[in-house]
Amino acid sequence: MIASVTPREILIATIARLLDGVHHVAVGASSPIPAAGAMLLRALKARAGAEPVRISILGSVEHNFFTNGSTELFDCAGQGRIDAFFLGGGQIDGQANINLVGAGDYPRSSVRWPGSFGSAYLYFVVPRVILFREEHTPRVFVEKVDFISAPGVSRPGIHRTGGPYALLTGKGLFAFDRARPGFRLESVHPGHSLGEIVEATGFAFAHDAAPPTTALPDPAILALLRGPVLDDLQETYPDFAAQMRREIAAAADAA
Amino acid sequence: MLRMTGWEEKLDPNLRRMAERVVPGMRIALPVDYAGVSMAMTRPLIERGAGDLDLVCVPTGGLQVDMLIGAGLVRSVETSGLSLGEAGGAPRFNQAVKDGAIVIRDATCPAIHAGLMAAQKGNPFTPIRGLIGSDVLANRPDWKVIDNPFAAGSPADGPDPIVLIPAIHVDVAIFHAPMADRAGNVWIGRRRELAAMAYAARTTLVTVERIVEESLLADEITAAGVLPALYVSEVAVAERGAWPYGLWGEYGADTAELQRYAKAARSAEGFADYMRAGALEAAQ
């Protein structure tokens, strides 16, 4: 059973753990893994009879309960009503600065990405921002970003009720220490190693000599994820849900 | 500038007339992909050929902006993001940025909403949290930082800096909505950013799926989602006018068509071919 857990299921279960305790989480329109993690948390809380978890999926008609246009999400965050959000980045550096704009000299970036979207605001006012980027390579995790869409830390005196909480990649999980500031490797996903992560990361980070392996979801959580959560996910991300089902079947065959 | 022949005669005369309201050098507000993009106005605008446009994306842009850039009509873009969503990057925009052919004013979504809100209230600016320490702010000399004059702490706490976004006024706002009535009232439902665009615009041009005979203000349920005719300059019918984008409550996006564009528009020639060929037939 455990042998057949897929890498994506580990990411989803890890996100649900990182979100534990939040009441309202917002997720980008094209972020199926964070959405799945939030949906898993919602299902776990519902099963435990705990306070319900509210999920806002941006750009989705079905999962959008806002009635004041696209400004309402930001107003809601400014009021302190959004507990967690996800950000990625073409580049992320060791100070948790993120770059969603482009590589090379601004403004004539050699590689141009879509833009900063709401990051330059939400990073400041959402308490638990989870940085999520599956690709874990030195071109993503750089010493210093070429453009700061949103800074990881602010000097004293700057109004800041939010910021980076964790960084989750395809290889491992990091926590962010705002005081130091910097990342600390918390765990390494099964099939990867500390050496591989050091090699793939362009910035220095703290770590134990032998960091633990990222926890696998227990069978009950896995059953919830493969059942009702995947059905929920199907409504908003049908292609992704179908892909997950194929991966799960393939992993079961291989085991 | 892109000159195209062969499809002009197929363009709706009402849309062509609306496009004549746009003159070179104007500042134009356009909505986010999912709010109601008047894709039907894109070709009439390109045929009209008014260039040196300064586009304001509310708060991000996509296909329509990429096409106007590809057609050589755009001088600058103010946006928080520009892409084709699932279909990937915006190819003509990315090329124009690389070539330095357009001025890019990178923003963040709530800053654009803040600028529109200032215009809505007739205020010179709106303050906004965040941004301090970002290169978004560093590259916007038009945004200012002041010390919060209402800071609650003692002087020993030091100042509380906050960013001011100046009012965003535009010459023309263009969007698509499900319906309007004979008086020119437009139903925008809960897409309130469309109202914000209209409040900030001197001229607002709207395409709709249909015109309804009864007044949209006669029923309190529809009235709550109405942009009153006071803010609307002109309305024209364009069925499936957001295509290949979707329109909330009406139809979904045509992702295959967006992907087809994304592939074709990787080169200037491919873009010109796309604009000349099949897309128009598919739209009709």
UniProtKB/TrEMBL annotation, chain A:
Q: Which InterPro entries match?
A: CoA_trans_fam_I, NagB/RpiA_transferase-like
Q: Name one Pfam family in it.
A: CoA_trans
**What's one GO MF term for it?**
CoA-transferase activity
Q: What is this protein called?
A: CoA synthetase
Species this protein is from: Prosthecodimorpha hirschii
The record lists the lineage as: Bacteria, Pseudomonadati, Pseudomonadota, Alphaproteobacteria, Hyphomicrobiales
